[in-house]
Structure to design on (429 residues):
């Protein structure tokens, strides 16, 4: 059995106004992948393809060892999927939904469902139509988690949640991962959530994957250097500088291949390195997208 | 046992460095005894709600520094003679010295005067701990 929970190779899909191009993804069992992209970047299309909801035009998709879409039914017994498109039945209670899911999935864990009710501060006898947005999100998650699936695919699970609910959801996702045979793939526009719990990070923009890798390496590679460049000093052209701005003597360079030698090279050229700043995932994402877009336009 | 480690968002340092520093503190004050077992990477990740890969990195660096020992398949423990002379404090010192230099520049203090004041501060601190 492969130790990849998700494996996409050269996946493509064409729509009249949008093209998903050459998507390659590998997610190791036991880890969490955060999938980041702007609105309309292709996140949801990619998720629909890996759930078998949309057949790709090209390429190969495998989830939990099952080829998708051919063997999607088998794969889905072990996948918990949540997205904004999936709604609960408003006139019914949460208890009704729990009984419904329990009747379909033999792995349903009633005791765990009870714990989740408490931790999420939900009441089973309440009707869905009386729930707030945050409560509905948590209710959907409860219905998925209590099945104890080996894989979670979550499209924007924390969007629209208040800070307390967000931490409750993140805590539950981490609890899932305490079993190293379980895997989570989640998309988000909230880079803070992704930075906090993801092991792997993938950026998508305009239907293409623009960067993918483990989070620690990601955060390590990117730095912002603030330099004092006296007039007459020319900075050497170094590989991996994705952005450079200057006003007067002060220059700010952004790099995606930082090494201490880089700062040394600038010092050697006559500039003073005032600071080498680490960057947040959000800053990295924005710098990455902008530099790629400029690169492609040129 | 380990939920008292905290990750600060407003601390500019990477999360793995914050975790390393706090583990070192736990060990130096004796909360985590020498030779004793420490939480597995996954346990600590769940407790702190932080990626497995981040905790893994903190453990790897602590192992490299001789603070903890990881035996494959048997978890990690605090080293019998942990080397708590941390590179981290060195980095922190360098950082603070840089701030001192920057403030000195800002206030127009000469380098000699700056050195004198650092020496005075050290003397003053030394007196305070011997009192």
């Amino acid at each position: 059995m492969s130790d990849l929970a998700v494996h996409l190779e050269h996946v493509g899909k064409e729509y009249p106004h949008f093209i998903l191009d050459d998507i390659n993804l590998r997610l190791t069992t036991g880890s969490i992948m955060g999938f980041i992209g702007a609105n309309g970047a292709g996140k949801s299309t990619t998720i629909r393809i890996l759930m078998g909801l949309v057949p790709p035009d090209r390429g190969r998709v495998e989830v939990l060892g099952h080829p998708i879409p051919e063997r999607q039914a088998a794969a889905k017994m072990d996948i918990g999927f949540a997205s904004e498109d999936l709604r609960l039945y408003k006139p019914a209670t949460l208890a009704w939904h729990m009984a419904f899911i329990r009747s379909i999935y033999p792995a349903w864990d009633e005791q765990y469902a009870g714990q989740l009710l408490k931790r999420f501060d939900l009441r089973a006898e309440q009707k869905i139509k009386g729930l707030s947005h945050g409560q509905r999100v948590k209710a959907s998650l409860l219905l998925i988690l209590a099945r104890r699936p080996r894989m979670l695919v979550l499209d924007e699970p924390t969007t629209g949640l208040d800070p307390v609910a967000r931490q409750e959801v993140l805590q539950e996702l981490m609890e899932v991962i305490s079993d190293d045979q379980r895997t989570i793939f989640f998309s988000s526009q909230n880079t803070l959530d992704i930075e906090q719990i993801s092991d792997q990070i993938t950026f998508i923009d305009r239907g293409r994957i623009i960067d993918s890798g483990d989070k620690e390496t990601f955060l390590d590679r990117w730095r912002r250097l603030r330099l004092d460049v006296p007039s007459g000093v020319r900075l050497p052209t170094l590989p991996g500088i994705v952005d450079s701005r200057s006003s007067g003597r002060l220059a700010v360079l952004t790099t995606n291949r930082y090494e201490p030698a880089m700062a040394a090279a600038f010092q050697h050229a006559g500039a003073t390195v005032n600071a080498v700043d680490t960057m947040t995932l959000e800053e990295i994402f924005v710098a990455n997208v902008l530099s790629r877009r400029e690169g492609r336009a040129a | 046992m380990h939920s008292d480690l905290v990750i600060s968002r407003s601390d500019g340092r990477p999360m793995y460095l914050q975790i390393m520093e706090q583990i070192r503190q736990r060990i130096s004050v004796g909360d985590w005894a020498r030779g004793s077992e420490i939480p597995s990477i996954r346990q600590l990740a769940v407790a702190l709600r932080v990626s497995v890969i981040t905790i893994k990195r903190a453990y790897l660096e602590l192992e490299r520094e001789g603070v903890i020992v990881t035996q494959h398949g048997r978890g990690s423990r605090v080293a019998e003679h942990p080397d708590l002379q941390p590179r981290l404090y060195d980095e922190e010192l360098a950082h603070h010295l840089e701030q001192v230099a920057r403030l000195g520049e800002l206030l127009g203090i000469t380098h000699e005067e700056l050195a004198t004041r650092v020496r005075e501060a050290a003397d003053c601190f030394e007196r305070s701990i011997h009192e």
User: Anything to note?
Assistant: Residues 87-107 of chain B form the longest helix (21 residues).
